[in-house]
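Quick start: load a record and inspect it. Here is Hotdog fold thioesterase:
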Amino acid sequence: MSENNMGDALGITFQSFKDDEIIASMPVNENTIQPFGLLHGGASVALSETLASVGGWLNIKEKGKTAVGVEINANHLRSVKKGNTVKGIAVPIHIGKQTHVWETKIFNKSEKLICVSRCTLAVVNI
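Running the structure step on this input writes:
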């Protein structure tokens, strides 16, 4: 995987890489907040798509292919203040030859659900 990508800019740190579960954390800091000091919904979506894309890539067994996002939605359920960390857990809902669908749940430090997202990936040539 490449260095100096959006995940690096957002401080995303991976804890687990499995075909059926990807786990990573992200700080709620100056790079991930909106103007009122709360986690930006776009940062949650970026975390979700990053986890889904890595999970998709892990599930592609054919050389010369990767997975890219074609659709994502997110429901933001709770806010998180600057200075905290969130954890995302992504699991596959569908792994096909041409498309994958992943669900990501993002939790605060108290393990309360703050965001749930679903991402559809296309399997493409690189």
